[in-house]
Amino acid sequence: MLEATSRGDWAGYLEVAAHADLFFADQRTRADARPGTVRFTPPQWNPHLRAEYLALFTEGILPPPDPDLVFQSMTLEWYASVWDEKEAPWIAINPGTPCEAFLPAGTPQARALWRQHADGRDSGGCGHAHPHDQLRGLWVGGPLQGPVAHGLACGALLFVHNGELWNSMAHHGNGYNNAKRRLKKWWGVTSREEWASTQKRLLDADMVSPVWEFALGIRRSLAQDFAGEAEQVADCPQSCC
After folding, report:
1. Residue 105, CB half-sphere, CA atoms under 13 Å: how many?
2. Are 165 and 135 in contact, with CB atoms under 8 Å apart?
3. In this structure, which long-range contacts are made by residues 147-151, counting pairs with CB atoms below 8 Å and at least 24 apart in sequence?
4. 140 in Cβ contact with 168 (< 8 Å)
5. pLDDT tens-place string over residues 38-87
6. What DSSP string runs through 141-209?
7. Predicted local distance difference test score (pLDDT) of residue 124
C-alpha cells in the first residue's frame, strides 16, 4: 500500500486492499449484546474533503487490544455489498499513516470499482480476504528475534494454517465476531471465564489429547528413522524466529 501511495497508483492500491482484511472499530458491549451483528462507528469529519468518512485499518496498523473497543474484520467486497446512501460518502484506509487513502464510497460506480478489484475474493463469506497456509509476519512493529519472538513462534504453525501474522503483538485475529465463533467451534469457549480457564489448562499442560501424542510420536519416529523433512517440520516454531 505504501508503494502504491508513493507512486499515485490507486488501481494498484485497490488491488492490494482487495486482498487485505479491513477492520473497523466496534463497541464490545454492543457486539456482545447482539452477537453476530456489526455496526459501524460514527463517521469522522475530514476538513479537507469537507465530508465524513469511515476509518478502516489493515491488520498491521491495528492498535493493541482494548477491553472496551474491538475490531471487526471484513473484505472490500463485503463493504461494497452493504454500503448505501445512509453511510459516509468516503472510506479512509489506514488514516493518519504514510499509507492512508481516502476512497469515494457514496456512488454505485465507486463501489462497483471496489468489486472489480475484489473479483469475488470474499473467501466464501468467512470474513477475511487473506489466503490460508502462508507464513505471514510483520517486518516493522513485530519482534523478529529474541525470547518474545521465540514464544510467539511456538504457535506459528497455527498462524500459518490460518494465514495470520505470527509476530503481531496487536493481534486481533480475523475480527471479534469471527474469533468468538472460532473459539466456540473449536474449544467450546463462550465466556471470558471459560477462556481464562482454557488458557490456564494449556499453560499447565492439563489439556493433552491422545491424538496429539500419537501424531507427535509418529513425527519423532520419522525424524529418527529418516532424519529429513519430519525433523525440520518439528523444529519449525524455532526456525521461524
Report:
1. 29
2. no
3. 149/241, 150/238, 150/241
4. no
5. 999 899 999 999 999 999 999 989 988 888 999 999 999 999 999 988 89
6. SS--SSHHHHHHHTTHHHHHHHT-BTT-TT--TT-HHHHHHHHHHHH---SHHHHHHHHHHHHTT----
7. 41
